[in-house]
Amino acid sequence: MIGQAVDRVDGPLKATGRATYAYEHWEAGQPLYGFIVGATIGKGRITRIDTEDAQGAPGVQLVMTYLNAPAQGPRDESIPFEYWRAQPVLTGPDVHFYGEPVALVVAETFEQARDAADLVEVEYRAGRGRFDFGEFEDDTYIPKTVNAGLPTDTAVGDFDAGFAGAEVKVDEQYTTPYEFSLPIEPNASMVAPRGEDLVVYVSCQITDAARDSVASTLMMDPERVHIVTPFVGGGFGSKLGIHSETILAALAARTLGRPVKLTLTRQQVFQLVGMRPTSNQRVRLGAGRDGQLAAIAHDVTMHTNPDVEYAEQTAATVRSLYAAPHRLTSHRLTALDLPRGTDVRAPGEAPGMLSVESAMDELADALGMDPVELRIRNEPTVDPERNVPYSDRHLVECLREGARRFGWENRPATPASVREGRWLIGYGMSAAIRGHFQGPTTVRVRLEPDGTAVIQTDMTDIGTGTYTILTQVGAEGLGLPLERVRIDLGRSDHPSSWGSGGSWGATNSSTAVHRACAALRTKLLEAACGDTRSPLHGQDPADAVFSDGNVAIGGASEALREIVARHHPDGVEAEGKTRFMGDDPNYSDYSINTYGAHFAEVGVDADTAEIRLRRMLSVFSVGRVFNPKTARSQLIGGMIWGVGAALEEEAVVDPRSGAFVNRDFAGYLVPVHGDIPADIDAVVLEGYDDKANDLGAKGLGEVGICGSGAAVANAVFNATGVRVRDFPITIEKLLPGLPAMV
Prior knowledge:
This is Xanthine dehydrogenase family protein molybdopterin-binding subunit. By secondary structure, the chain is an alpha+beta fold. It contains 18 helices and 29 strands. The longest helix is centred in the last third of the chain and has 25 residues, at about 505-530. It is globular and about 85 Å long. The chain starts with 10 loop residues before the first helix and ends in an 8-residue tail after the last helix. The mean pLDDT is about 95.
């Protein structure tokens, strides 16, 4: 079953509205509703807060501020990953960023809570905040490490000498804006007291992190916190950790002894969830006339929050991508009084490749060389910084196959040379790379007496198809039809995992299922082959074939349910595990990545500078694919997001208050159906990476966005001859440089 394009097993539930999301659970009975009151300054201190009118409003049960909020545990910096730490709120009068919660109103209905929230009176003494990245960009510091524990800076060879001696140079700066994950389902939770325990229905990506974070914040035993998250309406990094709505709902539920439901409004998501940091990236490339890179450097400055540091690994992108003897990468942080940075789909690679792959296109133009050929000429034989072999690298194949399928030979050799009516036509391409990660995950597989299998783990399905691929892996592992495999996800009472994120979820959980099934097969075979009552008695277990609910050895066979009923009348189970990548020698001995190549064609209106994507094709190498249908969906989704990063997405900060001005979908633009043509496709090469895991598969949820925006940006340059290095590329930036048309 692995590798089959199976329809989503949870599709009927979602299509009929029976898939239950965090805000839709009713098991605990009628809940109360909360609404957050946010600060209206970006930096300062509360001098007065009056809740009397709000407390007297119809239906109001509680108004919580820092004056009456329960004590909470501190954020423990010794815990290595932010998402497992305490997330205290309403802990004092100081305001750290615009929109920070200053009060919570809980009432019988949502409308009552929302209306009463307007009655909370807050007075502030505003301080001078640091809100403008450009103003404070030179005031930087060096973080100890960057995201994922990667080194802050790297150096190989002598970059200065190598760059100085290069015949052709590119030295440019590229800027990327604040960007948000913004899944369709806003961050939401409902918390229900159950004796001394709390049941937390929450939209999250890592169940284990949510449990530990809630427990440490409320200073509870983690065993008394029960996370329930069977369906998640998208995450893209924004739900890797929990946020203020969950903690506030938990505090209120414990205070009132009743279930409390709380969701963020779309506007509040912009202020309370975190975002991809804005960045200024300097990329330097030095090459010979033959296109061979001699020196490559990527230096990044980005925003961080002064209280919760986040350093996106933006410059790490180039470390494994191209060969060059002289190399330099660095990360620097500028502390601003804005919400903290956080993981947004393909953290590091998405903004990093937007810049690096634009710079490679600039180098190709300076050399007068085909951009595909330039990349092939700089293909490394080993990881150029770690000096270890690649586990399975097929970037060149992606480049060549993509060029063939796209018709790259028709690319205009001279920018701004092809016109169809009022449209200037251009082609662009880019490469893609993303590291493959592994985290500790445990899965329990149980075979019931009736021969059906139940697979349990706290792993989450954030809309990516986890229910489906685990069904396929389990069905293959036990030789069962799909309909006899049931997946039970998203509960902290199940074996723990690293959840969904970082493109590790599918491979971690599937590998653990694969191993659990192997252990379960061993138990069944030992029982049957050693039992004189079984047709398999005395047979060699090594020759066993599991298929259609039976196990056969030679000419003998027996139904699994018969073996289970005879030896395990209450059912039999086994567990499978994966470990942290730092404990797996393959991850130190090899450079394990996924790869791709993007190709795009755009049209640019010669009069208005309107940009239209006409078609897009990407080719990927991601090892073995569990399900081509769900894989293609993920890859195309990433490609489309890259289009948005290149052309549309940009959050704008009011430099007076630190508020995001365009904090809704009317002002923060993302690609919609009218922006994306039907002619968009993702092709996956056959593959199997035996160094990645037992199944030869690698994560693909994020490689689709890596570099895809640069392909669009490079196509815009090819169409117009205008290079925009301040993303997104908007009409205002492009129009002044358009060539005059007769």
